[in-house]
Amino acid sequence: MLHLLSQLPLQAAVIERIGSGDDVVLMDGAVCAARAGHIANDLLRQLLNQSCRIYALQEMLLVHGVEPLMLLSGVESVDYAGLVELTVQNPVIHSWC
Q1: Global pTM?
Q2: Burial code of 53-74, b = ≥16 C-beta within 10 A, e = fewer?
Q3: Considering only CA atoms, which of 8, 2, 4, 3 is closest in space to residue 35?
Q4: If 0-12 CB within 10 Å is exposed, 13-18 middle and 19+ buried, where does residue 89 land?
Q5: Hey, what long-range contacts does 39-46 have (CB within 8 A, 24 or more apart)?
Q6: What separation, in Å, do the N-terminal and C-terminal C-alpha atoms of the chain show?
Q7: Region of residue 47 (phi > 0: left; psi between -120 and 50: alpha; otherwise: beta)
Q8: How far apart (Å, rounded) are the C-alpha atoms in residues 83 and 68?
C-alpha cells in the first residue's frame, strides 16, 4: 500500500495505521519531518523499523530548503516520475491530510 502524508505534525495514530512493508511518501509540509533532528524522526524510525520505505518528494524538499544530505538515514528523495512509479507499484493508495 502507498501512503501519502502531506501535513505536519505527523500523527502517531496515522503512523500506527501504516502496515509493515508499506511505501510512504512525504509531501508538502510533511517533508520537513524527514530532516535529521526533527521532532518527528522517532515516528519515521518506527516505520523504518517496520521495513517501510519512506520517500520525501524532491520538489517539496527544495521548497522547504531541505537538502538531500540533511535527510534522516533511511529516507530517500523521489521526484514526480518516481512518485508515478510508486503509484503503479501500489494499486491501493491512501492519502492522509
Answers
A1: 0.95
A2: bbbbbbebbeeeebeeeebbee
A3: 8
A4: exposed
A5: 39/9, 40/8, 40/9, 40/10, 41/72, 43/10, 43/12, 43/15, 44/10, 44/72, 44/74, 44/75, 45/72, 45/74, 46/15
A6: 17
A7: alpha
A8: 17
- Cα separation values, 8 from 51, 84, 91, Å: 22, 23, 25
User: What is the rounded distance in angstroms from the CA atom of residue 67 to the CA atom of residue 69?
Assistant: 5
The tens digit of pLDDT for each residue in 15-59 reads 999 999 999 999 999 999 999 999 999 999 999 999 999 999 999
Q: Determine the average pLDDT of the residues in 50-76.
A: 96
What whole-number distance in Å separates Cα of residue 42 and Cα of residue 2?
20
